[in-house]
Amino acid sequence: MKTAGQFSGTLIVSDFDSTFFERGFIAQRNLDAIRYHMDNGGFFTINTARPVDSIAGFLPMFRINAPAVLGNGAVIFDYQKNEILDITYMEDCAISLAREVYEKFSTVGIELYTDKSMYLARPHHILDVSVQEYRPKGKPTDIYSFEKPLTRVVFFAQKEINEQIAEYVERCYPGKFQSIKPFGKIYNLMGKEVTKGSGLIKLCRILGIDPRRSIAIGDSHNDADMLKAAGFCACPRNGKEEIKTMCQLVVGNVMEGAVADLIEYTKNYTEGEL
After folding, report:
1. Are the CB atoms for 183 and 166 separated by under 8 Å?
2. Planar angle of CA 86, 88, 92, nearest 5 degrees
3. Exposed, middle or buried by CB within 10 Å (0-12, 13-18, 19+), for 80?
4. Strands of 118-122's sheet in order across
């Protein structure tokens, strides 16, 4: 068994929605296990599609002791210092693309992400209400007067419509953006080569940690690159089947404390055995 400081040099990175957090709830088991991990020398943080401002509102509920990866890998933010450590913007043509989709696909919801925030260009009702709470309410942002640099653009539509948008992007903007496949009701675009995996690698570099000493847990397609980049990976039982098959470990579901299950598992192994 490991002794005090057993997690020194080990980084655990968790997806947020449906892995660590669900419907306003974080399992107490998760909070207790994270405290144990950090008290014994480990790092814990979040790797999420959400923007900086969204996660800031949840930090009173849980602790992290390393910078967070946000915007599907576009931003690395230190909440203790209130400082952006790394950011990758999309090319300037991203806003032109968003405007073209706005005009050509009148039913598609559109969200625009900047360094810290998200702006709603056209409302949508595609997503489950449980993940709508951090999205802006009220009057949508005028997409034609929007001038802030973008880190991420998200389109919300039925799968068939998103496939049409993807075909348009590939034809008119070849090689300009990174997307997440397969497409469902959400079509994500980020800057070239930006993924949760690239964000994890950058975070490890900032912390001086070998990526092989990183442990990741996630449930969905946008987590795949993060799980591949980590030295060890897990998926909650409620995750997508394709994600479960690529992980070394499947743990309990999000409501039961999936992150706690992962930390419990790592307690029983010495360095290099995971």
Report:
1. yes
2. 145
3. exposed
4. 118-122, 109-113, 152-156, 186-191, 177-179
Counting Cβ atoms within 10 Å, is residue 28 exposed (0-12), middle (13-18) or buried (19+)? exposed
Whole-angstrom distance, CA of residue 36 vs CA of residue 5: 10
Within a 10 A sphere around the Cβ of 252, how many other Cβ atoms?
17
Q: What is the CATH number of the domain that holds 168?
A: 3.30.1240.10
Q: What is the pLDDT of residue 125?
A: 77
- Sequence-distant (≥ 6) Cβ neighbours of residue 113 within 8 angstroms: 51, 71, 74, 119, 150, 151, 152, 153, 154
Q: What is the pTM of this model?
A: 0.93
Per-residue pLDDT tens for 11-37?
999 999 999 999 999 999 999 999 999
Q: Does 5 map to a domain?
A: no
Pair (213, 250) in one structural domain: yes
pLDDT in tens, 148-160: 999 999 999 999 9
Domain boundary among 137, 156, 191: 191
pLDDT at 270: 45
